[in-house]
Amino acid sequence: MALTTLRRRAGVSGALAALATMALTLPAQAVPVEESVYAGRTVMSTGHLDLLYVDVIDGQNRSITHTELGNLDPAELVLHAKPSVASRTVSATVATLPGMKAQGETYYLLPQTSQLGQLFVGFGYSSALPSGTAITHQITDFEGAGELIAWQNSEDGPLPFFGSHESAPAAFTSEANHEHVNWGFTELGEYLITVTSSVTVPGGEAETLAPATYTVLVGEDLPAADPGTDPGDPVDPVDPVDPVDPTVLSITGLGHHYHAGGIATLTAVQEPDTGIDHYHWFTRADASAEWSVVPGAEAGTYSFVVRTADHGSQVKVVLYDHDHSVLTESDPVTIAVDDHGNDPVNGPTITATLPAVDGALTLSVAPENREVDLGELTLTPAADRFAAEGALKPITVTDTRAGDPGWSASGRVRAFTTIDGSTLTGAHLGWAPSVLEASEGQSVTAGPAVAGTLSGGPGVGAWSVLGQAPEGAGRGTTQLGAELLLEAPTTLEPGTYTGMLILTVI
After folding, report:
1. What is the largest CA-CA distance in the chain?
2. Residues 35, 233, 274, 287: is their CA dihedral positive or negative?
3. Hey, which CATH number is domain 248-334, 3.40.50.360, 3.10.580.10, 3.40.710.10, 2.60.40.10?
4. Which is deepest, 221, 323, 364, 505, by most CB within 10 Å?
């Protein structure tokens, strides 16, 4: 079919209106758990993570969990789904899922889209594995207060991925290196989900990985640990069988005297060092007053602004074990304030707060960059396909997180369509990513070029890496781009084909 016979122009108008500003403005938060049954583990109740994730560690494929706090062994992590944000009413369509409760009843949801104050849980694999790697995740053991079902919303209704009920799929396979699903739980309580994953790289054989068990608690509060019995003599934290000499706790850094408005910085010192760092600091107005705990002062150092009224006040520090029993406490130190007769008026304190987990990872598209027109699809010299070329306008990644864990930005186009319903899959689009700009100190690399399906590649119909930065070199602002090539078969119906590039960054 010659191009000159087309009644309507075959073009791509606004073909890539990019998804704007997918920002992770609520970084994952580690919930204090030392007084719960999950002491020593990381509990996450908000934020983005890939629960089922395969990475290459020391040359070996391993099942880990990829989070904003870093990579974690599944045994180290607990997902905390709070009913105050996770409760949902079963709809008519959700009720059709295998193992789900009846319409109108309550279930608990970790949604497939990012929502404020909730866990955003997905799956995927590291860029160290080749594009097109297929991973199968299978539930091989399950203990839970109710049923689990994972599904994805689609135009044809909910699409089950896997679940715990006997009528649910026990496994699913995906080539996506980053995807999200809904995670539904039918009852309050704890769920232990053991998943065995197998990895098949393009042209290779399936490799079965060691099973991993994932813990999910559906409940508003963490269950408290057994308070235990009298701890008795201090014990060696490494070998709890062998008693050790009592630890002496003291305070260093006390100044001879302070001026009003100055800073006092006190440090706890253990002799010998127990390796435990669970402190609380206490103050009192004078030696005859009652002690009061200092809110938030739980580290080995306590710093505060000195006021004239602090003269004669006392400070002590107490060391606790992991069961919150007192191991030892310091002798009090006394604060002396002396402005040498020139006592200033003590005015108001001035406070500004930076959250403990500061910064954010954001991906954004400026309004002027949200449309890319590749122009007309024209017949190639070989006359075996239509093609249109162009360039992606800048995509901005900004990382201000203090931990500088690195990031990876990916994109995909699910499909193109004309206004009257003719379609073309996103696999027909290929790209060659590039780094347009990067901040000083960043080390950003472009993702690999991906050929469209007519050129023998998988195309950008699946998630494809646009750019990435390693740990320690990702903070700052980067602009990413890509050369685009859309190829279509000669049987393509005439029309203007439009698709949308969706983006994610982790």
Report:
1. 99
2. positive
3. 2.60.40.10
4. 505
- Secondary structure class of 455 (helix, strand, coil): helix
* pLDDT for 422 beyond 50: yes
- Asked if the model's pLDDT at residue 32 lies above 70, the reply is no
Query: What phi and psi, each to the nearest 5 degrees, are found at residue 263?
Result: -115, 130
Give the other-Cβ count within 10 Å of 220's Cβ: 13
State how far the alpha carbon of 411 is from the alpha carbons of 176, 236, 451, 452, 466, in Å.
Answer: 11, 52, 14, 14, 7
Q: pLDDT grade, residue 355 (50/70/90)?
A: low
pTM, two decimals, is 0.44
Contact present, 276 and 257 (Cβ < 8 Å): no
Backbone dihedral region of 237: left (phi > 0), alpha (psi from -120 to 50 degrees) or beta? alpha
CA distance 318 to 96: 56
H or E element in which residue 83 lies = helix 83-86
Q: At residue 187, what is the residue type?
A: E
- Give yes or no for residue 4 having a pLDDT over 50: no
3-state secondary structure labels for all residues of 219-269? CCCCCECCCCCCCCCCECCCCCCCECCCCEEEEECCCCCECCCCEEEEEEE
Supply the pLDDT for residue 353.
56
For 355-422, the DSSP string reads: -SS---EEEE--GGGS----EE-EE-TTSS-EEEEEEEEEEEEEE--TT---EEEEEEEEEEE-TTS-
- The structural domains of the chain, with segments of one domain joined by +, span 3-22+358-505, 28-218, 248-334
Whether residue 386 contacts residue 10, with contact meaning beta carbons closer than 8 Å, is answered with: yes
Confidence of residue 352 (pLDDT cuts 50, 70, 90): low
Which residues have C-beta within 8 Å of that of residue 471, sequence separation ≥ 6?
404, 405, 406
